[in-house]
Input
Amino acid sequence: MRLLELSIVVAYFILCLYIAFYFRKSAGKGETAYWGADRSIGFFVNGVALFSTLVSTGSFLGFLGLAYRLGWSLTTVAFGVSSCVGFIISMLLASGPLRRFSEIKGKFAMTSFFAERYNTATALAASIFVLILFPAYIVPELMGAGLAGSYMLGIDFSYAVIIVGGVYVLYVLIGGMLSVTWTELMQGFLKFFLMVGLSITAILHFGGLTPLLKQATTVNPYYLTLNPKVSLWTYMGISLGVFMFVLSSPHIIMRLFTTKNVNQGRASLSLTAGMSLVFHLLGYLGVAGAALIISPKLAQVDKTFIVVMDELFSPFFRGMAMAAILAAIMSTTGAMLLACAAEFSNNIYRRYFNPNASEAQTIRLAKTVIGIIGVLTTILALFQTKSIGVIVGLLVEGTGSSFAVPLLAGIWWKRANAVGGFLSVVGGFVAFVIVHFSNVVPTFAEILISLPVSAICMIVGSLLTSPPSPEKVELVASLHRS
Amino acid sequence: MEKDGLLEKNPSFRLGVALIILWVLGFASLATGLGSREFAGIPLVTWTMMSIGVFSVIASIVIIPVQSRWEHISSRERHRGNGEGDQL
Output
């Protein structure tokens, strides 16, 4: 048991819960406060929180492991550049119209946009997919907690999973979007500076960038170049998946609704894109390279970050780095848990079971959903054994396949109608599942087929049926007016 | 302003489409073999994509006031009921 590291982690947990209690009263004011943080978040806080939402265990442990095993060039393009460009495309093509939609209709979930723009069947299909994909995404995140806790703190894997599961569920329950946003601000800084800081420490430790890369490429000759073991399709598939996920994932879209105004939302996405680029390019370059030198035959590549920080950081910074790993887990899981609760309570319960539900009833139900999903995912994480990077990668692609096309078409194509929207959401998801399980393409290349299927469904479905009503056309026009 | 329902003169839309095309072309360089060639030990596709990333961040900062002004003028034109409305 490492006492100093453990104390820092405990202090971090207390801080997260303090933030939740601090915002408890504000979050209890109603739905705008609970789901949309009262639309009070400025660009800087939202930008760092968005970065924090993106950088999950996948980025901190899983994808860094892929950089170690398959090379930095792959992860730089696939995660660094693609997430950066995804955020910028979101900023250019989606953030303004969606922020306006939220204000016009008073809604806070991406599927509410599908309900208003297409129809309730499209929204229901999207909600069901969110409720399948997001809990599945939370499981590997909690596995990361177990892995880091057992290695770094000497705590049993199961205890680490249960403790982290308990804390993140609690602060989402108590403080809603406000506490999620402010804890994510703290978590975002932790993650950014610890990854980049560890990379710089590694570069200095090995006598500069050139000596570090020279030694790293001796161990893995494909560290900087294209790895021949990775097919071109996988390379493009991961990149497209990350791009589409960043652009259309409901838990990221929810953040766009919280900003003070459209321009603050846009500026926050520019900040996030810049942070993501530096984090993946510089952070991965030094850390994965150092891991190749320190531990050339690392069997469990998800431990890449942990191995390097264990070797190069002092106990104080090890504790901070441990808190950063937990931050990576909790920020994404918190945002996803909130998105699941919003989908169920607003788009399923209120629409199909109790249309007259009051705000208080809806939030109460949402909190029950948060509790149930939190417990279920924690139990599942105790028994899951697959690689974190692979699970997260596949879920990222599934999300992008289902939501990217209907989202963009809904904003920009007035001819897009309910049939096209429904077919696009369902077609993208079904195509992804079929392609994945039939093994017709390499892993991670599924989206190269499922995304075009989603687009074809949208175009064919819309053009072969009657145009949308004048109200829907007017809604699209109103999204582009200041 | 619109053709086939697409709000094509919007500056953000134009920049967004341009970035997507650049991003696709970056990958296309891999298919032609050009992207696999190396400079300073790193493939050209990686250099290209990193440049696109940096460019997109800078362009996004520049576009915020431009887009805001375009939306403002566009709305004003519409209120005046002046022809098609959404043109700069």
